Amino acid sequence: MAEMNAVARLGKPHGIRGEVTVEVLTDAPEERFVPDTVFVTEPDIGPLTLTGARWHRERLLLSFAEVTDRTRAEQIRNTHLMAPVLDDEEDDDAWRAEELTGLSVLREGTRIGEVTDLLFGTAQDLLEIRLDEDDRAVLVPFVEQIVPEVDVEAGHIVITPPGGLIEEA
What we know:
- By secondary structure, this protein is mainly beta.
- Helices cover 8% and strands 42% of the residues.
- It has three helices and twelve strands; from the N terminus they run E-E-H-E-E-E-H-E-H-E-E-E-E-E-E.
- The protein has a six-stranded antiparallel β-barrel with strand order 1-2-5-4-3-6.
């Protein structure tokens, strides 16, 4: 069987007819999200057959033959759509939210918080960090200049944020 990777994570329902928002995890959405494509799911909820894909306010919306109402769309939330790896998709630098969530955040060698999510953006990805000091959530651009080290095995990331990014005004 071909090696599979996640190309999307299903989000919240959109409307009442089973359409769902999608966190796109591929650099080639126009190639991946073509009607009649059948996706393997993780966790396995059975295959999903794509019937429609459209962009709405910079968010991809998908509809599937097997999902016809809002209730079913809510039940499949956070399911990953899996597809065979394309030759040009093998990216060793790609991170998944599951790999980063829960990692300690270190600044100058001291723990300041924990990663709670990875948000994929059109310009850049953002790490959501919950600060230990005041339980506040902050968004940090996930770029090498600000996040120079990610060590999943050691359970931490290192950040070097510019002044004002973490501190309250």
